[in-house]
């Protein structure tokens, strides 16, 4: 678990500081963000950050040890994924309350996180008061998704999803691989690759393979992590 270096001493694992009831785990790969959130949350009389983590592995370990009331989870954790951490945490405790707090707002990012078990999805540009209010609501069992998040999920529902093979192809297109290289890697013909590319372009409502990659990155279908 990452050190926080906060002015207030951290309690021992499982210990709740006097007068506080909501125990928070903060997961983010940027130390400045972790410490900033900890300082703001610790100002609340009924909340405290009991631990921080910088990777999916650290997040799962910290959750298992600390059993926080709510976990704030970023999606990009260095080379690991916050969605993977959410799934792993829910294998430990299906009732674990997790709020995604991230800069990624693609509809696929949102869908994957909520499908994995996140109770809510927030952008890092929101006000601290909104974050505190959402944490209290989630603790109370209220999962009111923000209107902009709902709108993106509704837009996603109207789109045709890419098949697993098309996902493989779009990831290779993002690496600027040529059709023949994709064909060789996947063990299929170039003609089949061309069919997949055409389907991808159509489903993503793109002009060509280059703009299809841009759309896929914007929506969170793929990442450059």
Give an overview of the whole structure:
- This protein has 225 residues and is of the alpha/beta class.
- The chain folds into 2 domains: 22-156, Response regulator (Rossmann fold); 164-219, Winged helix-like DNA-binding domain superfamily/Winged helix DNA-binding domain (Arc Repressor Mutant, subunit A, Orthogonal Bundle).
- 49% of the residues lie in helices and 13% in strands.
- The protein contains 10 helices and 7 strands.
- The chain has helices at 31-41, 56-66, 82-92, 107-116, 128-139, 147-157, 164-174, 179-186, 190-203, 209-219, and strands at residues 22-27, 47-53, 70-73, 76-77, 80-81, 98-102, 120-123.
- Strands 2-1-3-6-7 form a 5-stranded parallel β-sheet, with helices on both faces. The protein has a two-stranded antiparallel sheet with strand order 4-5.
- Helix 4 crosses helix 6 (147-157).
- The model is unreliable at 1-18 (pLDDT under 50).
Summarize the structure.
By secondary structure, this protein is α/β, with parallel strands linked by helices.
The domain count comes to: 2
CATH topology of the largest domain: Rossmann fold
CATH superfamily of the largest domain: Response regulator
* Mean residue pLDDT: 90
Kindly provide the radius of gyration, computed on alpha-carbon positions and rounded to a whole number of angstroms. 20 Å
Percent strand: 5-15%
CATH level 1 name of the largest domain:
Alpha Beta
Biggest sheet: strands side by side, in what order?
A: 2-1-3-6-7
Residues in helices, as a percent range: 40-55%
Multimer state? single chain
The DSSP helix count reads 10
Overall, the morphology is elongated
Taking the sheet with the most strands, its summary is: 5 strands, parallel
Q: Uncertain spans, ≥5 residues at pLDDT below 50?
A: 1-18
The assigned structural class equals alpha/beta
Secondary-structure element order, N to C: EHEHEEEHEHEHHHHHH
* Termini gap: 22 Å
Number of beta-strand segments: 7
**Can you tell me the CATH architecture of the largest domain?**
3-Layer(aba) Sandwich
């Amino acid at each position: 678990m990452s050190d926080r270096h906060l002015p207030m001493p951290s309690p021992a694992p499982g210990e709740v500081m006097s007068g506080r009831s909501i125990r928070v785990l903060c997961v983010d790969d940027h130390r400045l963000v972790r410490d900033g959130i900890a300082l703001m949350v610790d100002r609340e009389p009924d909340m405290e950050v009991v631990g921080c983590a910088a990777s999916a592995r650290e997040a799962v370990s910290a959750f298992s040890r600390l059993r926080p009331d709510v976990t704030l989870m970023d999606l990009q954790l260095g080379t690991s994924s916050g969605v993977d951490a959410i799934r792993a945490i829910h294998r430990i405790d299906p009732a674990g309350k997790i709020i995604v707090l991230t800069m990624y707002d693609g509809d696929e990012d949102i869908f994957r996180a909520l499908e994995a078990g996140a109770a809510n999805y927030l952008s890092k540009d929101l006000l601290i008061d909104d974050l505190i209010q959402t944490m209290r609501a989630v603790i109370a069992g209220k999962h009111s998704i923000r209107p902009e998040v709902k709108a993106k999920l509704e837009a996603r529902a109207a789109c045709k999803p890419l098949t697993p093979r098309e996902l493989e192809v779009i990831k290779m297109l993002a690496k600027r691989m040529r059709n023949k290289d994709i064909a060789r890697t996947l063990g299929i013909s170039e003609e089949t690759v061309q069919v997949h590319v055409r389907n991808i372009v159509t489903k993503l409502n793109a002009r060509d393979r280059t703009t299809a990659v841009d759309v896929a990155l914007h929506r969170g279908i793929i990442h450059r992590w």
